[in-house]
């Protein structure tokens, strides 16, 4: 039996049965997979169990708690963050394995180039190209919010780029499923949250609008035509959901 690569992968999921098999198949050579599930109602958890993944259930009002619990419970020193609807090329797995065997001095966090696709075509503009995903335990932590983003605790970030010695060192991200999921979530959140909120903060509308303007015009998603518009709209939706959840949390804390 071939020995697994001594890396722990952490994935967040919610109702992701359509893409999860592809994601898990792309990282099956890693030693450990931990799935943080937001109480999926489809077959997401059953699919994760087929790949021998460890399941941690997240409270939707405190996702970062489950995320950082996952970091604490990993059995390997190096941790790789994988997001929903991503496929990790085997060439990138190879580059990661090479790096953890010989890391750069004082650089125990790595970022990777990400390519995002919508309707089978790449969205080239508007995207943050480098994503912090690989780190040695205790050198990074999840931000205290509703995202799946990391912040460095100590040390520096090493950037692995496709145009360096690392060939094809990128993560493939398919945003179409995210858009469908987010539209569904925003409808559910709107129905549930507005029944509980006594007053609506201006930020719940202003910040999403600013997010759309930033990605569509300043980051030039407009150059990608329809796909760029959809991408900027996705960022609007994500920010709206985030502000709704923050507002709901603040109102509960005031009770």
Describe the structure.
The protein is an alpha/beta fold and 255 residues long. The protein has 7 helices and 12 strands. Strands 1, 2, 3, 4, 5, 6, 7, 8, 11 and 12 form a 10-stranded mixed β-sheet that branches. A two-stranded antiparallel sheet has the order 9-10. The longest helix is centred in the last third of the chain and has 30 residues. It is globular. The N and C termini lie far apart (56 Å).
Our Rg estimate from Cα atoms comes to 19 Å
Largest sheet: 10 strands, mixed
Could you tell me the strand content as a percent range?
A: 15-25%
Q: Count helical runs.
A: 7
| Content-based structural category | alpha/beta
Question: How many strands in all?
Answer: 12
Average pLDDT, all residues: 85
The end-to-end distance, rounded to whole angstroms, is 56 Å
Rough shape? globular
The helix content is 40-55%
